[in-house]
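Below: protein 1.
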Amino acid sequence: MPEPREGTWSRSLDLRYQKIQNPDKHHHIRTQWDELWRWSSASNPNSRFDNLISACQRFYGGKVELHCVYEGECLVAAIPLVEDTFRQLSVATLPNNEWGYWGDLLVHPQFRTSDAFDFLAGNLIRNTKGILELRYINAVEFRWQQLIHAIEKLGTVIRSGKFEVGMINHAADVEQFYSGLSKSFRKKLRKYHRELSKLGNVEFEYLSKPGKEKLKNVMAEIFELEQAGWKGRENSSINDQQMDEFFCEQASLLAEAGHLAIGTLRLDGRLVAFEFGNLSKKIYSSWKIGYDESLSRLAPGHIIADYMVREFHSAGNCVQQDTIGPVSTATSKWTSTSLVRSRCFAAGSSLRARLLVSAMRVAGRAKRMLGRIGSSR
């Protein structure tokens, strides 16, 4: 794969935009995409080509467009967008949803100048007729900041739907890490371990590159455990054959690339808790966690989280853990910091889209003003 030229990039360089539709039929992009992911600051391996395409096929009927910027023949920036609708208006959005995050902004480290981001932003807006939505992004990260700033030069950008995600820092040694947890929680954690061990033989296993048959069996146990609990009752578990197959495919792709991270906790050989995620660039993303509700008084979710933390510190392969979803009572016991994910909206090239985004902005201002008036009374 050709390397981008060194130095500061500007419009004088040979930047070329290309929109790729049906990327699963353009196999040449796969190597370029994954190479750019490797260079970029994006850490979630779900953003790699195969995982991305798999998710788009499952949730978006395979309809995804890759918006790419080349410097010469080298792919230097890329963002995937799928089609959604809002008030009967087309929305081009990142393929991120309640099941996971696959859409991210990939940029080469040399893709840093405002001219380069202006080039990408201009082409995104020109090729979006409806609304452009950047869903569940860390808007304070440099690459996203630069892109949003470039889009703002072209029109209105609305930020909404913010939520905090708990982050667990593993940079300190293990003793320092645990000293940072509350004293009462550490005491309860020791009690949970003691009480569970009284019930039988407790075994923890960490899986990163299991064989195909073992991975298949472990995933089947995970699905069964999830379905038996509250997630199954509220239909938020992986509870149908298509979703089973999808998550098995995602896990297999992660394992092949060396990014799978599964922890299992067994009591006398029976699975009583699991944590399923991915690990790359020393960032662990905790995708799913589940446990046997009959043992909830012993907090098996916290016990397996404890084993996972110790595994990462022992291996030295993780400096930070992303708990993915909004901070909860359970995750707050472990988290030491947080990041904010949000949604950003911008108008595409059509007049209707520009009018709608302007109306959304006015409505947002009015809502905030009414909130301030109400709180002052």
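Below: protein 2.
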Amino acid sequence: MLDWLKTLFNPPGPRYRIDPVAFILALVAAPLIVTALTFPIGGFSFFVLLFGAPLYLVIGTPLLVLHLRRNPGTFRSLMFLGFKAVAVLVIFWAATMRSDQWTSVLPALAAFSFGFGLAWTATFAGLYLLIRRRRQD
């Protein structure tokens, strides 16, 4: 009855080991680095971090763990995973908005969320792969 759930959390085929130190360091450091680099541009990146990081951690962590258990974790695959996750969230958010909200600041916030989500994913992918490679050597 719940075979699909067993398959989701225990996938058939090759399994890959996730380096927990590299994963946690990259997961926490990625939003902080992007915020530090983009803060001088407008200062709003602190608020993006404040409101976006909990969603990034709650949704991104399980997606990244599931993906990295099934795949070797290349930069391209992690970026594509981030693109799909952020796109689904923005589409879901846009579909649930009322028509009078489209004239407010919410569409701009969705665009910033999309951009920062991709930047955080790119930074995570680069850091994770770099730290993992250095720890294996």
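The radius of gyration is 17 Å.
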